[in-house]
Amino acid sequence: MTEYNSHISSEKGLPTGRQAPKRVYLAAFIVVFFTTISAADSIGFVPCQIDGTCSAGTESLALSSLPELGTEQATSYELPASSILPERMKISAVDIDLPVQNPSTRDIAALDELLKNGPARYVDSAKLGEKGNVLIFAHSSHLPVVRNQMYKAFNRIPELQTGDSIVIEGDGKSYLYSVTSIRTANAEEAIIDLSPTLGKKLTLVTCDTLTGKSSRYILEADFVGTL
């Protein structure tokens, strides 16, 4: 009987005795491998480069993550008492005196709607007095007639020069910054560094409407002290 079964198995191409073909071992290995990966991924042991869950950190920001800042629902949130948010911006050299908003949203459409009320601080940027970069952005427009003047909030930012003073007010204090540079950049390519290793910085961003839809003005300033 044993000889008969062995003969039948051989005729049908089935493995005999313990000599299983290599493809059986390969198939078993593949099944075990993917089962193990699936189990490890479910408890967070799979590197994000493998399962595609990697996300960018908050120490830099692509300008493309901001609204266009030149075209005609944000959510508020509360911070600990130790965090000082910018409340008002004063730049005497170009007659700017505007309130500053502090939304929690990163949604471009919501931020665009919010900017109808004036400049806004980006949620992941530094607060006043902290090490890091306080990023504030607002609209610019060079249209001859604009119903909402907040579309022209940062129109005169490009007129500032190195050494000009910017005062940001918050919690009854005034924080003085000195302009170090003004440049233009493409929103699809430029990155704003928000790292605390930079020291205490201020960055203002607005649209360069005369150049193109993706062009931005970027003003950088260093913290000088409190007034």
Automatic annotation (TrEMBL):
Gene Ontology molecular function: hydrolase activity
Record-annotated membrane-spanning stretches: 24-46
Gene3D superfamilies: Sortase
The keyword Amino-acid biosynthesis appears for this protein: no
Pfam families (UniProt xref): Sortase
Keywords: Hydrolase, Membrane, Transmembrane, Transmembrane helix
InterPro entries in alphabetical order: Sortase (IPR005754), Sortase_dom-sf (IPR023365)
The keyword Membrane is annotated on this UniProt entry: yes
Source organism, top-level taxon: Bacteria
Protein name: Sortase
Lineage, top ranks: Bacteria, Candidatus Kaiseribacteriota
